[in-house]
């Protein structure tokens, strides 16, 4: 029997509630597919920070490195200044564990939940490969003459050939393995960001031409990409982009696929510890009310199994989620599902 050690970080707000349902479903999958999943819980997040003054102790980060995968609920607390937990926990883990890919599938499971007129599940099925370790997220920059009329703030986008290349290669490989449209679109801003996206674009074509001639290469500016997400989502197959553009377009992607209640993502280090999360955040106002949608966390659990190589189990969870989404859910929004958080977990578990 294959066994896997999983680190679980419920985190803040509704994080623990949705992770509980994800684990419930993972356990059913484990039984069905004869896997053993051992969970270790880590108390991280705003509450711990407020209690101890530490966001992520070095010793905890060192422990996290030993797991093949981490399941994360959400990070973000209303009583902690924005940036502290995000940088201190989420970004630090992404960077230090070299989770250089943020993989975000955008897939519509039921047309009732699409805000776009007349779009069907077959029209909305693409994946964003977001660079996850560089760009405007590194914290390079600074402020001088703060608080004076001469104040200057600089925030620089870091794009290394190595970082860009490994991201592009992952995206090309992904498009090949996915075997759907066999195309990869670079989303950038070559008309204005003429240094950063010059590097991206050259690397994109060099690598594509040399090593992935079977994958069709396309390019779109980020502003046009957002327009097409709404107008022609069926054009997309796999999109690769930098950290900030990826952040922005995947929130739009989440809406197009039915909302934050269903959107999951993986912070991936193909050779190391990867971290899977619902991308919706901690939703403080819904905390402990039993109304938050756990499907995104359940889908994150499925992505985790897929990463671990348990593709059949992952697929089975997704199939159960699709069935419940189509046959049971009244809405994917918090409080409107027609079921409580744990009932949705039960429904998926039963379908599985
Ligand atoms: C996300 C989030 C994070 C990001 C925040 C919380 C730092 O928005 O995972 O998309 O910007 O990457
Ligand atoms: Mn985001």
Which terms summarize this structure?
12 strands; alpha/beta; about 20% strand; two-stranded antiparallel sheet; about 40% helix; 10-stranded mixed beta sheet; about 350 residues; binds 3-isopropylmalic acid; Isopropylmalate Dehydrogenase
Overall radius of gyration: 20 Å
Domain unit count: 2
**How much of the sequence is in beta strands?**
15-25%
The residue fraction in helices comes out at 40-55%
C-alpha termini separation: 20 Å
The CATH class of the largest domain is identified as Alpha Beta
**What bound compounds does this protein have?**
3-isopropylmalic acid, manganese (II) ion
Number of strands: 12
| Helix and strand sequence | EHEHHEHEEEEHEHEHEHEEHHH
Spans of at least 5 consecutive residues with low confidence: none
Average pLDDT level:
98
Shape label: globular
- Helices and strands: which structural class? alpha/beta
Strand order of the largest sheet: 2-1-3-12-11-4-5-10-8-9
Characterize the biggest β-sheet. 10 strands, mixed
The CATH topology assignment of the largest domain is Isopropylmalate Dehydrogenase
Task: Find the CATH superfamily of the largest domain.
Answer: Isopropylmalate Dehydrogenase
Can you characterise this structure?
With 352 residues, the chain is α/β, with parallel strands linked by helices. It has two domains: 1-101 and 259-352, Isopropylmalate Dehydrogenase (3-Layer(aba) Sandwich), CATH 3.40.718; 125-256, Isopropylmalate Dehydrogenase (3-Layer(aba) Sandwich), CATH 3.40.718. Helices cover 41% and strands 20% of the residues. The protein has helices at residues 15-32, 46-52, 58-64, 84-96, 161-178, 196-211, 222-231, 243-256, 295-307, 311-327, 341-351, and strands spanning 2-11, 35-41, 69-74, 101-107, 125-131, 141-144, 152-155, 183-188, 216-221, 238-241, 264-268, 274-278. The strands form two sheets. A ten-stranded mixed sheet has the order 2-1-3-12-11-4-5-10-8-9, with helices on both faces. The protein has a two-stranded antiparallel ribbon with strand order 6-7. Strand 1 (2-11), helix 1 and strand 2 (35-41) form a beta-alpha-beta unit. Helix 1 packs across helix 10 (311-327), helix 7 runs parallel beside helix 8 (243-256) and helix 9 runs antiparallel to helix 10. The longest helix has 18 residues, at 15-32. The radius of gyration is 20 Å and the shape is globular. Manganese (II) ion (MN) binds at residues 247, 251.
């Amino acid at each position: 029997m294959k066994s896997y050690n999983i680190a679980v970080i419920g985190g803040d707000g509704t994080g623990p509630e949705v992770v509980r349902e994800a684990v419930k479903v993972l356990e059913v999958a484990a039984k069905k597919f004869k896997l053993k999943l051992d969970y270790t819980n880590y108390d991280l997040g705003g509450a711990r920070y407020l209690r101890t003054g530490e966001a992520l102790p070095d010793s905890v980060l060192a422990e996290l490195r030993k797991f093949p995968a981490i399941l994360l609920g959400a990070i973000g607390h209303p009583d902690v200044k924005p940036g502290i937990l995000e940088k201190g926990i989420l970004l630090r883990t992404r960077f230090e564990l070299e989770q250089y890919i943020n993989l975000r599938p955008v897939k519509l499971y039921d047309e009732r939940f699409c805000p776009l007129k007349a779009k069907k599940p077959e029209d909305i099925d693409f994946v964003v490969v977001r660079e996850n370790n560089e760009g405007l997220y590194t914290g390079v920059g600074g402020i001088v003459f703060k608080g004076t009329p001469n104040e200057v703030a600089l925030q620089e986008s870091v794009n290394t050939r190595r970082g860009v290349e490994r991201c592009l290669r992952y995206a090309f490989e992904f498009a090949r393995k996915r075997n759907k449209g066999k195309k990869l679109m670079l989303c950038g801003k070559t008309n204005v960001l003429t240094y950063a996206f010059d590097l991206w674009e050259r690397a994109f074509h060099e690598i594509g031409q040399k090593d992935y001639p079977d994958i069709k290469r396309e390019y779109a500016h980020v502003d046009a990409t957002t327009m097409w997400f709404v107008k022609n989502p069926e054009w997309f197959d796999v999109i690769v982009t930098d950290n900030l553009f990826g952040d922005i377009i995947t929130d739009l992607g989440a809406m197009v696929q039915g909302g934050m209640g269903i959107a999951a993502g993986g912070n991936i280090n193909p050779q190391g510890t990867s971290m899977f999360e619902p991308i919706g955040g901690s939703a403080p106002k819904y905390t402990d009310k039993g109304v938050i949608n756990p499907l995104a966390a359940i889908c994150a659990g499925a992505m985790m199994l897929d990463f671990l190589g348990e593709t059949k189990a992952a697929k089975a969870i997704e199939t159960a989620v699709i069935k419940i989404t189509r046959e049971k859910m009244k809405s994917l929004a918090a409080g409107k599902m027609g079921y409580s958080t744990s009932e949705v977990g039960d429904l998926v578990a039963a379908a599985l």
